[in-house]
Inverse folding.
């Protein structure tokens, strides 16, 4: 739906709220919330439609409006899924999909006063569908290519060698993002991708450590401190190879091994993925 949160009709919303909420004080308070206005260029502008984006009440109010859509689709016997203002309807044929799309558009525009976003609305086969960051390949649910690209872009940001932040803080923020990402996208049935992402993330972190150690003397000292033999520490510390090449060296992988990075706070994507898919066998 086109800018749904900005375009919610206040009258439509209040009528539907009044079906369940009988306390007029509550309804009056919600009305004040909706008409509180927004600040534009330092001046307050009254709002005649829409719900405040980012407000804790807005998702609930949007669901109140779209509950009628859910009920209508259930009445028609459609298989569908909806999250906020994103929804998909499953039908058996292209002819049926065109008919359903036209009728649902009429229902939204006439009954709920909501305009359909034509650029985001389409009739596609299931294998070409993306919904909430996921795609569907046969009977499997996988994250979409765009979701994976966004993930890799964020990882590059968190592990950028030019980001001047302490490694402890870098890993803390990276770990927070990784836990949230795998918590959402972990239902994707794509273990091979997870298995390849994890060593890539670790290598980027090792690269950051090597860059932070800066001088040859300090690199040798750090390698020795982390258990690398004197010979290997000197050979690697004096190496003129770049950070990315050194991040794959046996000495640096021995020093900053997987268990060491785990102790530092880096979560394992593969372990968390396995726990989601096989919760009774993974501890």
């Amino acid at each position: 739906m086109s800018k749904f949160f900005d375009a919610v009709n206040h009258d439509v919303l209040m009528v539907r709220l009044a079906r369940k909420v009988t306390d007029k004080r509550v309804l009056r308070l919600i009305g004040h919330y909706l008409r509180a206005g927004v600040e534009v260029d330092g001046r307050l502008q009254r709002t005649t439609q829409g719900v405040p984006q980012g407000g804790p009440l807005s998702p609930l109010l949007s669901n109140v409006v779209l509950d009628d859509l859910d009920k209508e689709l259930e009445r028609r016997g459609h298989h569908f899924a909806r999250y906020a203002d994103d929804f998909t309807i499953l039908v058996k044929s292209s002819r049926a999909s065109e008919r359903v799309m036209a009728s649902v558009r009429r229902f939204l525009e006439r009954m709920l006063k909501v305009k359909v976003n034509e650029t985001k609305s389409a009739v596609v086969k299931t294998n070409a569908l993306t919904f909430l960051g996921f795609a569907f390949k046969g009977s499997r649910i996988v994250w979409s290519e765009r979701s994976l690209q966004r993930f890799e872009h964020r990882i590059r940001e968190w592990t950028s060698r030019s980001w001047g932040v302490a490694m402890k803080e870098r890993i803390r923020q990276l770990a927070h993002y990784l836990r949230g990402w795998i918590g959402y996208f972990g239902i994707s049935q794509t273990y091979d991708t997870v298995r390849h992402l994890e060593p890539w993330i670790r290598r980027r972190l090792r690269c950051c450590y090597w860059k932070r150690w800066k001088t040859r003397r300090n690199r040798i000292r750090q390698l020795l401190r982390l258990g690398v033999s004197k010979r290997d520490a000197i050979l690697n510390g004096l190496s003129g190879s770049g950070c990315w090449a050194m991040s794959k060296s046996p000495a640096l992988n021995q020093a900053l091994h997987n268990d060491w990075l785990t102790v530092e706070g880096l979560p394992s994507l593969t372990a968390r993925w396995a726990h989601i898919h096989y919760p009774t066998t993974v501890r």
Q: What stands out?
A: Residues 191-213 form the longest helix (23 residues). The beta strands are 38-40, 43-45, 79-83, 86-90, 130-131, 134-137, 140-143. The mean pLDDT is 88.
